[in-house]
Amino acid sequence: MSADLGIRPSARTTRSFADPAHRRRYRFALAALIVGAVVITALLLCWDNPYVPFSERWLRISRMRVSGVLVVAVVTFCQAFATVAFQTATNNRIITPSIMGFESLYVLIQTAIVFFFGVAGVSGFDPFTRFLLQSALMVVFAVLLYSWLLSGRFGNLHVMLLIGIILGTGMGALSTFLQQMLDPNEFDVLAARLFGSITNANTDFLWFVVPVCAAVGGTIWMLSKRLDLIGLGRDISTNLGLNHKRQVMLVLTLVAVLSAMSASLFGPMTFLGFLVATLAYAIADTYDHRLLLPMAWLLGYVALGLAYFLLKHVFTLVSAATIIVELIGGLVFLVVILRKGRL
């Protein structure tokens, strides 16, 4: 009918992709990442196993490696979902929960525990109780910060970001001050806790972390349509009938839970989330969060899993896996900052 009237079809569309070529490219990239994730998982579980395949001893060693694979999956899941949702809620694709001070809070809590209770006090404290208290404190801090700054007289996201960065810097300085007063033995114990490592991850609590992360991540994925609206900005989303402030608070609270689980299980990871989110935006090339979130997770799993495998079985530098991923993420962060010229 439009052609009969001489009217050209509009180029605008509300679909997830601009054209079929973008959809095909997304499907190809997703399929390649799924295949890559399966291959990396098989390599992590089976590589360099000296026993006869599928024998009792062979299966026993493979089962012992499952915890490492689970740690990689959980950490990348938390970092990817938390960063993408956080950047949409703040309408900023450079800021991440880690840069906002979440990792600094984790470092301060760990430093304060060792400083006030000492090594003996830390060892005598129930590990699961300490894990819960630490995670709860991080979530409470984030929710209070978000609710105060978003509901205050100057409540807006830019003020929240500025204060978050200042608080992160202040907590980092306070942690450094406390660390300088520790004796060498206490500092060694603290350093082991502050270093993000797959082999040193606290796998005893995976039975608790995995269901919590699955529930929170699943909730974020089900809120994808609302995230799409939030990404349009406060004015447009409000005009479309969305309670912008309430939805942003809900998303930021879920992000706080995922960030707390990741930090408490694995340790600080400053640039992993930023790296996978930036790559997901570039490869997926869509605003649809139902498609962005799984893409970001798979990218993180493949990147961290591949680094872990290569440095464990090829270069025998397993402790450097997270350092290399963080280094690449930091370089990507600098490149993006220099190209944009602003936060």
- Secondary-structure class: mainly alpha
What number is the mean pLDDT?
80
- Beta fraction of the residues? under 5%
Termini separation:
47 Å
Q: Main beta sheet: strand number and arrangement?
A: none
Low-confidence stretches: 1-11
Radius of gyration: 22 Å
Total count of helical runs of at least 4 residues: 14
Order of helices and strands: HHHHHHHHHHHHHH
Residue share in helix: over 70%
What form results from the Cα inertia axes?
globular
Strand segment tally: 0
Word description of this protein:
By secondary structure, the protein is an all-alpha fold. The protein contains 14 helices and no strands. It has helices at residues 20-46, 56-64, 66-90, 98-124, 127-151, 157-180, 184-194, 206-222, 224-230, 234-239, 244-266, 272-284, 289-314, 321-340. Helix 4 (98-124) runs parallel beside helix 6 (157-180), helix 4 packs across helix 7 and helix 8 runs antiparallel to helix 11 (244-266). The chain is globular and about 60 Å long. It starts with 19 loop residues before the first helix and ends with a helix. Residues 1-11 have low confidence and may be disordered.
Task: Give a quick precis of the structure.
By secondary structure, the chain is mostly helical.
Topology of helices and strands:
Layout: H1 20-46, H2 56-64, H3 66-90, H4 98-124, H5 127-151, H6 157-180, H7 184-194, H8 206-222, H9 224-230, H10 234-239, H11 244-266, H12 272-284, H13 289-314, H14 321-340
Helix pairs in contact: 1-13, 3-8, 3-11, 3-12, 3-13, 4-5, 4-6, 4-7, 4-11, 5-6, 5-11, 8-11, 12-13, 12-14, 13-14
